[in-house]
Amino acid sequence: MSNELLSPAEMGEADRLTIATGPLAGIDLMRNAGAAVASVVLSRYPAAPVHVLCGPGNNGGDGYVVASLLHDSGVDVTVWASGSPRAGSDAALAASECRVRPRPLSEFVAETGAIVVDALYGAGLSKPLSGDAARAVAVAAELNLPVVAVDLPSGVSGESGQSLGQAFRARITVTFARKKPGHLLLPGRAMCGELLLADIGIGDGIIARLEPRTFENTPPLWIENFPVPAVDAHKYRRGHVGVFSGGPSATGAARLSALAAARSGAGAVTVLSPANGLQVNAAHLTSIMLRKADSMADVQEFIGGRRPSSFVLGPGFGVGEKARDFGLAVLGAGRQGAAGGIDGLVLDADGITSFRDMPNVLFEAARRLNAPALVLTPHEGEFARLFPDIAGDKNLSKLAKARTAAKRASATIVYKGADTVIAAPDGRAAINGNGAPWLATAGSGDVLSGIAAGLLAQGMPAFEAACAAVWIHAEAGSRFGPGLIAEDLPLVLVPVLRELAETRNGAAPR
Question: What angle do CA 311, 346, 373 make, to 5 degrees?
């Protein structure tokens, strides 16, 4: 699987294992990396003068290779060095082979129309740029020079994607073997510009030995679990989703979730409405069923009689004891296979906020043996209501926060945003890279919850269902583009789902 993401430490280990097992030496990897970057510069900026900024480590070593290759191709190249590589290192060998004499970075100047190759520090930097490096960032920005970054723009954390202070904003970033979390997490993703992945000779077997637990959220991660109905399927074999509705003035959110669950493949969907909202819901529902659910007895009767597979609770529901009681009732019903068993509960919006003063009650219910899978879909504010200490920890990246929360809650966490992170209690996590700004519209999250519940109802495991729902939701938003409102999304899902079903039918069997 090529969608693994490697932390800077894991990437260093991949280098080490590759060198230890042969036949490539460290300088070979460096030469391959430099050749990949030089090729990009030559193809994109064939006539421009190039300033290569080299740090003292391996990133700088890549830069010396870039400078040599560009010089040999007839390019006007200047090398600016920040310190000298450690004696005997691969970077020192690359510097000694460089046919362009370096000048001190403290003297860096450039002309309009030039290109900067940022080979200062890359993904491994863990402290803010300062001194000459920070001044170089300012010079490049003032002249609006296109920057080609080696591995990651210097000043951006490969672990968190955070800008550590001054940082280059690249036009193109060339990274190696696998992407890093900082390439996908914001603001790093925006600061990388166009991201290119180069093969420098680190094999898939080496990556597999690292047993990565972080992935880019793309279909190969979950396509083998994507549900496609069998020839003899009937509606209840395809799963039954229950969606809890709010009162008469707040029913729309539940209907958005319900329609999305149906579009995502659930064979039956029922909106569970308070009595005073039945008429409003009935006026807008056709293929979606409707049932009264004012009390715990109503909910228990529905679970026992109709054997629903999954639920959505929260969109437009209202905050308070009723939401807590209904959520705990679903989690207490047990997994599918037992009488009235349930595969999962997607808790969103008001459902999340209802547990802000007693989150441990929710987490303990999710932790019980045979409890349905719990999927929480908080945006940043809702995340802070359930996990205030985690949200406030400035030492944790968004990825680390989602992971920590998932373990504490015994739930799959969908930490929403333009760089949505999905994390499972077992430590797996995925970062979504296809987020669409058009999804920043009221009701969009309700649709996401419905997609996740629809996939859960069809037997997709919780982490895979959440990842798939996030990717499908974003892909639909991107395809529609400007003018998107939440009501558009369920229908826009259709071509995306069709293509995934076709891919799944052609994929290797489970």
Answer: 90
Distance CA 293, CA 286 (A): 19
**Residue written as tokens 């800008």?**
163
Dihedral of CA atoms 403, 328, 443, 215 in degrees, nearest 10, equals 20
Render the burial of 339-376: b for 16+ CB within 10 Å, e for the rest: eebbbbbbbbbbbbbbbeeebeebbebbbeeebbbbbb
Burial string for 379-413 (b: 16+ CB within 10 Å, else e) reads beebbbbbbeebbeeeebbbbbbbbbbbebbbbbb
The DSSP annotation for 10-69 comes to HHHHHHHHHHHHSS--HHHHHHHHHHHHHHHHHHH-TTS-EEEEE-SSHHHHHHHHHHHH
Give, for 215, the enclosing helix (H) or strand (E). strand 214-217
Structure token pair of residue 505: 């039918």
Distance, CA of 185 to CA of 427 (rounded, Å): 18
Residue 239 has pLDDT above 90, yes or no: yes
Q: Residue 429: exposed, middle, or buried by beta-carbon count in 10 A (0-12, 13-18, 19+)?
A: buried
- Whether residue 8 has a cis bond before it, omega within 30° of 0: no
Mean pLDDT of 370-391: 97
pLDDT (tens digit per residue) in 450-487: 999 999 999 999 999 999 999 999 999 999 999 999 99
Task: Say how many C-beta atoms besides its own lie within 10 A of residue 506's C-beta.
Answer: 8
Element holding 91 (H helix, E strand)? helix 90-97
